[in-house]
Specification:
The complex is a heterodimer of chains A (228) and B (229). Helix content of chain A is 77%, strand content 0%. By secondary structure, chain A is mainly α. The longest helix of chain A has 42 residues. Chain B has one domain. Helix content of chain B is 80%, strand content 2%. Chain B is built from eight helices and two strands, in the order ααββαααααα. Chain B has a two-stranded antiparallel ribbon. Chain B starts with a helix and ends with a helix. Chains A and B meet through helix 4 and helix 5 of A and helix 6, helix 7 and helix 8 of B.
Amino acid sequence: MLKKILYSLTTVLLLVSIYLVFFYAPIPINPATAGGDPANFKIFYFHLPIAISAYLAFAIVFISSIMYLKTKEQKWDIRALSAAEVGVIFAFLTLASGSIWARSAWGAYWVTWDVRLNTSLVLFLIYISYLMVRQAVEEPEKRARLSAVFGIVGFLGVPLSFMSIRLWNKTTVHPIAELNYNTFSPLLTTLIINFAAFFLLLASLITLRIGIELLKEKGNELKRKQNI
Amino acid sequence: MKFLHIAWKDLKAEFRTKQMLNSMMIFAFLVIVIFSFAFGNEASIYVSVIDKKIVDLLAPGMLWIAFTFAGMLGLSRSFAGEKEDGCLEGLKLCPVDRSDIYNGKVISNAVLMFLMEITTIPVFVVLFSYEIKNIPGLLLVVLLGTLGFIFVGTLLSALTVNTRTREILLPVILFPVLLPVILSAVTATGVMLAAGSISEIAGELQILAIYDVIFFIVAQLVFEYTIED
């Protein structure tokens, strides 16, 4: 029941957020300073919530990994796996939406030396490796243990990567949102609703993924019973 | 200090055959040779726009590619060797903390890697007729960078030894985590090679030191889970 509410709320909010972005929200930048078509800057309403959701997903992986090593309960492993898989998709979407926009605004899909771009790329690579670790181990208990170790090590690498990339080249061409937080401008309203929509989407996808994993386990158990 | 015994055992076994050390040194040598073929005489061309020779731009990257690739060879064998004849079980039966096994392995891996590095730098100097301007500074950067590489590498080597595709998996999962080390070490090495002073690379040294400390502590905490059965 609770899941159904979550899924329907996600759907409604996503539809509302798409409507708001296309028909209500202003262009989130002064058109005079924008490169390319200023209307393209509206992708920001999707890009920022997706990026923050990816970070959130990886924080869940980190916490679940610690909890797994502490309690050795399988539910934490399932949570870590689900959050990592969904997080990788969100991280990829961050890179993709950013690149599509960058082509219009900067004239290039990728700027090699930008701090934020490279940090997102490293984040994506670390969690691809996390999934690689999972794939390489057969036994469930060992897989949970080893991937939990990597989940901790990988997450700690992210802030250090950010610091080292920033030191390597301080300049960023990445725009920084300047919001007036005191007033409920259309910009802020749209952004908040988008944040809510994507956080709920993240929660729904992780819940669904956990459900799949639990069903898989049930299936395996039934198979084992059949054999005996 | 029990971890010294484990390090001593590893080094003793290694210096009986010198298998690993020789492969690492020759591999690093070959990497430098391939670079010298690839860049040829053009490397010594002077580019007035940047006020540098081409080799000045390439040198730090070349050195660290040689170091990390050759170091990876040593790391992947570090625990794989223990898998044979149940050596890992023997190690685990030792009356020491699990983290002592890690510390011992760190020391033996670091010694092998330093030996490989101090033979690779002269080869590089000769093949590119290069002059290193700030040798103590370079050694400091190499020391901190190598320690970071070894701290994370030894932990992940223990992690991958229990997986199906261990030799392939280790580099794949190690490099993304290692990015802060490689990036800072390469930039800092570049400054040191070009006669910069230590104060110019204070930021890089800080990051390397923070990285070393954080991952050394984390490894002490989580290492036991990688080899537990």
